[in-house]
Write a structure and sequence with these properties.
The protein is an all-alpha fold. It folds into two domains: 3-190, Growth Hormone, Chain: A, CATH 1.20.1250; 199-230, no CATH class. Helices cover 71% and strands 2% of the residues. It contains ten helices and two strands. α2 packs parallel to α5 (80-97) and α2 runs antiparallel to α9.
Amino acid sequence: MSPQLGYTFEQVVATPAFWLIALVHTFCCAAHSGPLFHMVSNIIDHGVDKLAAATVFALAGLASIPGRIATGLLAERFGSKTILVLWLSAQATAIVLYLAVESLVSFALLAIFFGISYGSVMPLYALVTREFFGARAVGSSYGAIFFLSCIGMGLGAWVGGRFFDSFGTYQLMYLLSFAASGIGAVLVAMLRPPRALDTHGPRNALVGAGCVVRGRGRGIAGGHRARPGV
């Protein structure tokens, strides 16, 4: 879809697809923010040294870098929607595995998997937005989606802390984070592009009728009639 034929921002926010993408992005951020922000404290609670726990956290951040690069290459080949489902599912798997790990080595290996998954998933929302609505208003459209996702980012970390203060464990946080990421994957699989824009409207009437206006400044504005079939 060319920028000229892309949706305006007003048209984008009027589609169900926009709100579904925003909802998935919010679920996704809520899902990984809790495990991410509480990673060090959770590892320490399992008897790991503070410095080692902080190193594991840094390892997750480092692992997210190649994920962010590779996901673009995969999206170009297989489509951003397909890869988004894949990485949301991988993120859900990584999150639920935190319920089973105990040792420093297992935490380190899981940090790599988790870092790759959450790092890979984040760039895809902008690509999906561009593919669904065109480039005409992609900046404002994705900006609105990202704004809404930040609510999930803050909420996930806060809820994780509240659960720990109330129950003395992060288990419920991991279960809900797993559910949020899994639901996001299902919603993306159900996502359908909005209906095509009407390219036969007033601004594209000549094109829709198979007419070509020759010469600069000669069309309707110039007072000359289009020559059909030329």
